[in-house]
Amino acid sequence: MSNGRRGWRDIPLRWRLIGLVTLGTILNYLARSTLSVAAPQLKTEFGMTTEDYSWVVLAFQASYTVMQTVAGGVLDVLGTRLGFFLFAVGWALANMAHALATGWPSLALFRALLGASEAAAIPAGAKTVSEWFPPRERPLATSVFQMGTSVGNMIAPPLVAFCILAWNWQAAFVVTGGLSLVWAGLWYWSYRSPADHPALTTADRASMIAARDEDVDAKPATRKDLLKSRAFWGIAVPRFLAEPAWQTFNFFIPLYLVSVWKLDLKSIALWAWMPFLAADFGSLAAGMLPGWLMKRGVPLVASRKITMTVGALCMIGPACIGLAGSPGVAILLFCIGGFAHQMLSGALITLCADMFDSRTVGTASGMAGTSAWVGGMLFTLLIGQSADAWGYDPLFAALAALDLLAAGVLWSLLRATPRMARVTREGR
User: Fold this and answer.
1) Which of 338, 343, 178 is nearest to 272 (CA)?
2) Cα distance between residue 69 and residue 142, in whole Å
3) Smallest Cα–Cα separation from 401: which of 191, 182, 245?
4) Among 122, 195, 143, which residue's Cα sits nearest to residue 369?
5) What are φ and ψ of residue 407, in 5° steps?
6) What's the distance, CA 320 to chain centroid?
7) Contact 180, 114 (CB under 8 A)
8) Of 202, 259, 408, 412, which has the fewest CB atoms closer than 10 Å, so is most exposed?
9) How confident is the model at residue 365 (pLDDT cuts 50, 70, 90)?
10) What is the tens place of the pLDDT at every residue in 280-292?
11) C-alpha closest to that of 365 among 228, 231, 188
């Protein structure tokens, strides 16, 4: 007799799989965020300046930037299951290796290895969404796994601080990397593509393919076609302009709190997770607002554009951090920024699944990710050269300006294809 409660197996299979992707994304961002929480102690232990630390961050960003395109192509060739598994094992081991660092050069080496292997997470999530979800469900599915980026960042301050205070900084990297290694095994055991998944009947599989409305002739099918596509540049350029905000929040909030407000490690653990909780709500907004708009007659692509623009406008909040009179007010403005960025980023990532064939969406997402990380890397270099001399306030104002510019570029370059208009009309 049923007790009225829904169990895990009552959840549709595609949502269980996106839940698994979300867990992997959480652990991916937990691993990469370990350094930012440990950074104040490592700066003291290794005698690093802010510029030295920026080079460590840049090592991660440079390898991540190059590997985004490579990882997307690997996922398209090997498939989501095997490809994501191999990259997850790689980032787990690379993160654990940080415990062997003896100075900032060796730390930079391990960060480069971590960046190279972590680059597959977002393309793998986008590819999973493209494989398993129809167009109307893609914004919410993307927002669900996108929440993992902020949850990972949210968990990092208390968990890493606990490991450091209970044991040492090396333990923080071993623990966070070990969790990713466990997830890699779970992913390989659990995931299959719709064509191969044993839980799908033949009828379910045919229905899913029909609902997905695959039209491979209407979409770029090769990397060369992608580079010629106006749609690709309409996504890639806004991501280039918008990504610096999220990377700044990821890598520099703890250092900002230490340098500007003189907070200690316990205080950072208390405060630094809050912007990433707000970012979760931004991810949810990115999933829900497009559906609400489409029910009111807004075309599919326009619904993504509006969502991205609302997020960009909210970035005016963190632009005002220089006016904060206390660390609490600064954190509140960071919270607005976290919400804003995940809202606009979710819309941009979903557009890859909307505009490109599932056989090339990993490549498209990876190439757009490379564009994004070039932007983040250049801004990190700017922080390293200017933060100690000029402070952080003008940098946060610049982030808001870049996001507003990104919204303008998105509206200018991206146009709905005839297929997108048909999807909207048919209510798929």
Assistant:
1) 338
2) 19
3) 245
4) 122
5) -65, -40
6) 24
7) no
8) 202
9) confident
10) 899 889 989 998 9
11) 231
- 128 C-beta neighbours (distance < 10 Å), count: 29
Torsion on CA atoms 167, 172, 175, 178, rounded to nearest 10: -140
Q: How far is Cα 250 from Cα 408, in angstroms, rounded to an integer?
A: 25
What is each CA distance from 426 to 22, 25, 289, in whole angstroms?
A: 30, 33, 19
Q: Above 80 in pLDDT, residue 46?
A: yes
The residue assigned the tokens 């599919």 is 300
CA distance 417 to 102: 53
**Residue whose token pair is 């992608």:** 226
User: What pTM did the predictor assign?
Assistant: 0.72
pLDDT (0 to 100) of residue 48: 85
Task: Please name the amino acid found at residue 379.
Answer: F
Mean pLDDT for 265-294 is 87
Query: Which tokens is 30 given?
Result: 């937990």
Residue with tokens 């007790």: 3
d(CA 86, CA 124): 12
CA distance 251 to 6: 39
Separation CA 315–CA 318 (nearest Å): 6
For residue 423, pLDDT over 50 is answered with no
Over residues 367-412, the pLDDT tens digits come to 888 898 889 888 877 877 777 778 888 989 999 999 999 999 999 9
